[in-house]
Amino acid sequence: MGGAVVDEGPQGVKAPDGGWGWAVLAGCFVITGFSYAFPKAVSVFFKELIREFDVGYSDTAWISSILLAMLYGTGPLCSVLVNKFGCRPVMMIGGLFASLGMILASFATSIIHIYLCTGVITGLGLALNFQPSLIMLNRYFSEKRPLANGLAAAGSPVALCCLSPLGQKLQYHYGWRGGFLILGGMLLNCCACGALMRPLLPPKKTQELEITSRTAEDDKKPQPKKKLLDFSVFMDRGFVIYAVAASIMVLGLFVPPVFVVNYAKGLGYEDTTSALLLTILGFVDMFARPLSGILAGMKCVRPRSVYLFSFAMIFNGFTDLIGSQANDYAGLVVFCIFFGMSYGMVGALQFEVLMTIVGTEKFSSAIGLVLLMEAIAVLVGPPGAGRLLDATHQYMHVFLLAGCEVTLSALVLALGNFLCISRKHEDPEAKMEMAVTASEKEGLNPPVGVGEEDEREAKPRGKKNGKVSAMETGEMMVKETGEEGEENNETSL
Description:
- The chain is mostly helical.
- Helices cover about 75% and strands about 5% of the residues.
- The protein is built from 19 helices and three strands.
- It has a three-stranded antiparallel sheet with strand order 1-2-3, covered by helices on one side.
- Helix 4 crosses helix 6, helix 5 runs antiparallel to helix 9 and helix 15 crosses helix 16.
- The chain is globular and about 70 Å long.
- The chain starts with 20 loop residues before the first helix and ends with a strand.
- It holds the Pfam family MFS_1.
- InterPro entries: MCT (IPR004743), MFS (IPR011701), MFS_dom (IPR020846), MFS_trans_sf (IPR036259), Proton-linked_MCT (IPR050327).
- GO terms for molecular function: lactate:proton symporter activity.
- It is found in: Basolateral cell membrane.
């Protein structure tokens, strides 16, 4: 791995917004599906595990909790590995870990063995795939990035609709051990997806110029080492606001899908009828994510994507608050439809907004730190809702709590950006001045406001031939024609 090409996203390389990027998007679609759907799909085997090892449901529920904790909590570790070795090798090693964990778990003799294999090893493998795939998607797409994020996020509901029925079939025909073994083989597809993550390289001419300039700089002074985990993102107010809001949001975001089936059972409906609610939710979610990506990519919406994300969270929160009053199956169906829409919007926009806030260069570190903060909320949210349910024995209070938490996160994000980030925009002239390189500055005329002697020296040049040679500074070119006092004097910018 030491000789791997590190895909640092070299400067001067424009995101292709297509081409091989569609292959990267396909890989990200599969990885996202495995990462989010696998912890839920494993729950199909819980009854068999309870019977096999003589444990309770709460004991088996730790398998999904550990999987999610590894997916979120190892974010900084993934950032360090990606910054050191690149996305492709990290993802391929992660695919091997994900597959190995499930294969070893098929030979388990105790529930602790499954915790270590399925929870820790497979969870780590999925984490090493999920985060780098998003980083590569960010590098390959710029103009079409909202759409790409929406399509990639759609992998979660699609995989959930496929993996859950598949798990039931595998359990019926091969038992839980055979099911784990086959699922472990399927996770080897993560290695194939990792192989698709080809690093972006600059053109040959640009590459030669970079090598020459680096050699010259190396002779003068040693270059500082690249940071493996960039904590300077916490200096960005936008990132801090986003991280706090996302952590609050995760407290309540995943609660309704966990409890909606039991909510229906509590109203007296059959197991199959109750389970249909998740199918409805996933079907709506499947289409909501790409559509949200298209909406976020519109020219009039994209500069305000943070506020669109805030709207999605408020939509989700109010859906929980209103859905808490449902007292029949029809009400729960309506709740699942609207929750699927809002949940899909949140899923499609959350990483798109983070990419917009921190940019490509710092995204690998930013996403790792955000996922670590969300990991704590993931571990606290559903168990906390469960304790509230045990105390009140009413699902209404659980949904009310989740709705309040998600709505609060939306207010934190929207008001924080409106009050703290609205003045952050820099003067366009300052941005243009920063864009001009040192070599270009040497060829520029003195800025406006110089001494009178410089102005006197500049005037004869205008009188001599009646023309001034073009000056190029980044994106600006000025031409002046005509003699002093003539009416046809033109200046074009």
